[in-house]
Design a protein that fits this description.
Length: about 375
């Protein structure tokens, strides 16, 4: 089948490009330098810079603009949670669709579950919220499974079948983005590198080069300096002062990886073309709201050194879950990471274009080349 090609990409993976032959890479201006740069970011996901400072080697379209920073924003995290579920209820009332939560048992999806219980009550929630999970999801959070999901007869589906969900008339809910608004310290490299005095040191080219050398074993000083300079350029335009390395970690995740994180699950959809309603009432990322992002910006502006250590990571979110679900055992729960196991079961396509077509051939990258990019 011949697929139509649009003018921009809304999602792309860099993995095929990393493994592409030099004869292909050399056809795309700036790509070699870009592939050096992307080693700093989430593996596989193509960077889309929401600040507009960095122009990619491909024509990309951000769907998720950075909100305007408002240091007087007064909503707390709980307010943002409840506003998000209220907005979801409006979609349910308008469309009549049920919700299907891609539930890992981790803190992000547990918070979404708790929000439904708080807003609707558990009986009503069990009628409109379906749970897509796996054995790993149950093992990760047995308390929610035993005391809520199984007890109140929520409809259960296998999260291993998620690639088929996009063909069904249901609203899929996910919890991507909560890492980004809390600072992205779930990344193992950051945790091991920054869980010491490095976390509170001022951002500098030398410190960024040190991290890059530690993470990727890059010894080429020219490459290290090149990547660090690009990253410092993005940090310079943050409306929230980047006072230390923790703040930089938050800002890079918030500004550079948001689009790719939000849409990566769609790259595993078992369709040639996504439905036109996909971003309105097909896939909804619970934390992808202006409120959550404004909360994150204000929180980091007011507390540049707070909740940076891993022991406090997402503790505000955990407190919400505890207050609603009354499971005291949850206070000591550790991260298990069941969802990445589910996501790895399906091979993602290379690109999604702005016509919602899923493209899976290296040659299609050439249709989106941006010759005027920041890496030439």
């Amino acid at each position: 089948m011949s697929l139509p090609i649009s003018k921009s990409l809304i999602y792309y993976s860099v993995t095929p490009l990393v493994n592409a032959p030099d004869t292909f890479v050399n056809q795309i201006p700036g790509l070699k330098n870009f592939l050096k740069f992307r080693k700093f970011c989430n593996p596989g996901i193509g960077v889309i810079d929401r600040t507009g400072i960095l122009k990619m080697p491909f024509k990309v379209a951000t769907k998720y603009a950075l909100p305007v920073f408002d240091k007087n924003f007064k909503k707390d995290y709980r307010d943002c949670v409840m506003r998000a579920v209220k907005n979801l209820d409006a979609i349910h009332q308008r469309t009549g669709k049920k919700f299907r939560l891609l539930y890992s048992g981790g803190i992000d999806s547990t918070c979404i579950f708790a929000a439904f219980v708080e807003y609707y009550g558990v009986d009503r929630a069990s009628k409109i919220l379906e749970i897509a999970c796996s054995k790993d999801s149950i093992d990760e959070n047995p308390w929610v499974w035993e005391r809520y999901i199984a007890k109140y007869n929520f409809k259960i589906l296998s999260s291993h079948e998620h690639s088929e969900f996009w063909k069904q008339d249901v609203i899929v809910l996910m919890g991507e983005g909560n890492d980004q608004i809390f600072g992205g310290l779930g990344n193992g490299y950051w945790s091991s590198f920054c869980n010491n005095e490095n976390l509170y040191r001022p951002v500098s080219k030398d410190l960024l080069c040190e991290y890059l050398s530690y993470k990727n074993n890059i010894q080429d000083k020219d490459s290290l300096n090149y990547i660090a300079e690009k990253l410092l350029g993005v940090a310079a335009v943050s409306p929230v002062p980047i006072t230390n390395m923790y703040m930089f970690i938050w800002w890079y995740a918030f500004a550079l990886t948001w689009d790719g994180i939000m849409d990566r699950i769609l790259a595993q959809a078992n369709v040639e073309r996504l439905p036109s309603h996909i971003f309105e009432s097909g896939l909804i990322q619970f934390y992808n709201t202006a409120d959550f992002q404004r909360w994150s910006m204000t929180f980091h502006y007011e507390n540049p050194d707070r909740f940076a250590e891993n022991k406090h990571y997402k503790f505000i979110c955990k407190q919400f879950c505890l207050s609603v679900l009354d499971i005291p055992e949850y206070i000591d729960k550790l991260k298990y990471r069941s969802m990445p196991v589910v996501q790895r079961l399906s091979q993602p396509v290379y690109m999604i274009d702005s016509d919602m077509c899923l493209l899976n051939d290296l040659k299609y990258y050439l249709d989106f080349v941006n010759t005027e990019n920041s890496f030439t």
